[in-house]
């Protein structure tokens, strides 16, 4: 294979993650057959991807079941790959969601059962929980790590202020702080990753894992002429994405993408590959999670790593000009101390 996957430390931890990982949102247990899911995971692993991400909420637990079944079947060395899952929405009962000690422990045990694993490498808190004291949440994640059910914990979609609070609580009570934040980052959403995450990294060593580098498919260019029948925006439960694409802002974005596609043509790659390579160009990004509904799509997206070097300072400047959304740093500190 022509694409060469490199590895980075996850934040200031010693965990070495592949620069691209495989996410299972939308696809595993829902959009793809189990056979296709196995083909996708096999291609990922054989290409050098060592990071597989899922969540208790994905396809109501089916994504974890599908991933677990494939890992059991393939019998790859457990020490050769990383599995992360996310805890927050586990069920309909009031006690089956959130970041209470009860749900973190029960939710993670449920994930491990579905995954057929003794431990996950990283357990992420899938959003902040305003109903649970931060100390309780940090103590619970420290407990599951001490029990050997997870190696590390991280956050997902947390604000810098919440992440700093978790870190402060961990330091105050000699508990284990989070190692990484999972967050959305793409050509149309830049501020948090470009302004706030570098500061968090330098202050407390938090790494950055990116999801939705193609903005749920918007950055593939396939929505230029409307909503294709087999696209994600046409799926049941994704009307929010359809509305976003068909909105006035969505139309404006499609116009900008036509110009970005011309840049992609010039450097010899697809619009999707340019969008992924652009995310990987950011040195503060440790891993970009790729989603794929078939093997060809994943193969194309993995090839994006070849084009990182083609994104010269001049090309990056041109993209900034076309997009017109490069974040500007405030003079004041962006992150609460």
What would you note in describing this structure?
It is a single chain. With 337 residues, the chain is of the alpha/beta class. The protein has a single domain, classed as TIM Barrel. The protein is 43% helix and 14% strand. The protein is built from 12 helices and 10 strands. It has an 8-stranded parallel beta barrel with strand order 3-4-5-6-7-8-9-10, surrounded by 5 helices. A two-stranded antiparallel sheet has the order 1-2. Strand 7, helix 6 (160-172) and strand 8 form a beta-alpha-beta unit. Helix 5 (134-146) crosses helix 6 (160-172) and helix 9 runs antiparallel to helix 12 (313-323). The radius of gyration is 19 Å and the shape is globular.
Q: What's the short story on this structure?
A:
It contains twelve helices and ten strands.
Describe how the helices and strands are arranged.
Blueprint: E1 7-9, E2 16-18, E3 20-23, H1 27-31, H2 34-46, E4 51-53, H3 62-74, E5 82-87, H4 101-115, E6 120-125, H5 134-146, E7 150-156, H6 160-172, E8 180-184, H7 191-204, E9 207-211, H8 239-246, H9 248-267, H10 271-281, E10 287-290, H11 295-302, H12 313-323
Parallel strand pairs: 3-4, 3-10, 4-5, 5-6, 6-7, 7-8, 8-9, 9-10
Antiparallel strand pairs: 1-2
Helix pairs in contact: 2-3, 2-11, 4-5, 5-6, 9-12
């Amino acid at each position: 294979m022509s694409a060469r996957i490199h590895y980075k430390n996850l934040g200031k931890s010693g965990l070495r993650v592949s620069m691209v990982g495989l996410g299972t949102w939308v696809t595993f247990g829902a959009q793809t057959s189990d056979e296709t899911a196995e083909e996708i995971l096999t291609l990922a692993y054989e290409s050098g991807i060592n990071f597989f991400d899922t969540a208790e909420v994905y396809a109501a637990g089916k994504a974890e079941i599908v991933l677990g079944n494939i890992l059991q079947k393939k019998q790859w060395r457990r020490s050769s790959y990383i599995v992360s899952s996310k805890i927050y929405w586990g069920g309909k009962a009031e006690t089956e969601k959130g970041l209470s000690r009860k749900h973190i422990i029960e939710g993670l045990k449920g994930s491990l059962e579905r995954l057929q694993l003794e431990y996950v490498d990283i357990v992420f808190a899938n959003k902040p929980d305003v109903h649970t004291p931060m100390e309780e949440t940090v103590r619970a994640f420290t407990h599951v790590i001490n029990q050997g059910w997870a190696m590390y914990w991280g956050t997902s979609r947390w604000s810098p202020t919440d992440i700093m609070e978790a870190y402060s609580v961990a330091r105050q009570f000699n508990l284990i702080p989070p190692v990484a934040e999972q967050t959305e980052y793409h050509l149309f959403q830049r501020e948090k990753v470009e302004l706030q995450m570098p500061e968090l990294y330098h202050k407390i060593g938090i790494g950055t894992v990116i999801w939705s580098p193609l903005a749920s498919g918007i950055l593939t260019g396939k929505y230029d002429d409307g909503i294709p029948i087999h696209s994600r925006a046409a799926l049941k439960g994704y009307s929010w994405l359809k509305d976003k694409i068909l909105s006035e802002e969505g139309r404006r974005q499609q116009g900008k993408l036509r110009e970005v596609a011309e840049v992609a043509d010039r450097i010899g790659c697809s619009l999707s590959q340019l969008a992924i390579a652009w995310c990987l160009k950011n040195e503060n990004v440790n891993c970009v999670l790729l989603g794929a509904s078939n093997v060809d799509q994943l193969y194309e997206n993995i090839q994006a790593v070849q084009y990182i070097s083609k994104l010269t300072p001049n090309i990056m400047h041109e993209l900034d000009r076309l997009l017109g959304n490069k974040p500007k740093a405030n003079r004041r500190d962006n992150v609460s101390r």
